[in-house]
Amino acid sequence: MKVIMKKIIFIFMMSSFLLATFSIVAVDTTTGEVGSAGGSCIAGSIIISDIHPGVGAIHTQSYYLSANQNYASSLMDQGYSPLEIIILLEQNDVQNNPSIRQYGIVDLFSGNNYGMLYEYECNEIEGAIWHGDYDSGQLAECSDPVISRNASFTGSNCSNWKGHVNGINYAIQGNILLNENILLGIEEGFLNINGSLDQKLMSALQGAKVPGADTRCLD
């Protein structure tokens, strides 16, 4: 029987040694884990992260406003997709100035739940997964496979260098960076390690460990 864990992973560093202002939100569709990591030279950066256990994560950064973050959080609670949340954040910025904001959102989406079925009944539904003990002859939950969805937004007036990188189960974003290679290094660190989600997030942090990654850290 497949057991889905609902686990929160949160890693954030504020350090002039790390030399990076960036964030990554990610999920693991196999375990149901939701994770968040990042780094900055600016104190209080931990507030950018909003994690919903077993559902998804939102990072709100660049001229952070709690009202915008709370709005995004409420939309995730209502079941909106990451892309839908991004669109609504652009349309409903509290100060009517989305051009200075940056967001990264990822979630877990399970699609249809077909209820309690026998194994042979579930097998007749294309793509569905039966969550029981095989050949047990018992009823068990049948549902579509869990997938991940992601979206990012970087406003045109965020401070350079700014940008974002997205993959199947992650969203990476940063601003006031040295160059694009900082985000690419984070992505490489996340992808090029076989391990649990927390291990991959720690590796992502190491990928951003470049002198001058956050230009403010040089002041």
TrEMBL record:
Source organism (scientific name): marine metagenome
Name of protein: DUF1028 domain-containing protein
InterPro entries according to UniProt: DUF1028, Ntn_hydrolases_N
PANTHER family hit by this protein: BLL2871 PROTEIN
